[in-house]
Amino acid sequence: MKGVIFNVVQEVVEDVFGPDAWDEIVRRSGADGAYTSLGSYPDAELGSLVTAAADVAGVTEPEALVLVGRKGFARLGGRHAELLDGADTWMDVLAQLDGIIHPEVQKIYPDAEVPSFRTTTGDRTMQLRYESSRNLCPLAEGLILGMGDHFGTDLTVDHLECVHRGDDSCVLEVVER
Ligand code: HEM
Question: Are 138 and 107 in contact (CB under 8 A)?
Answer without folding.
Answer: no
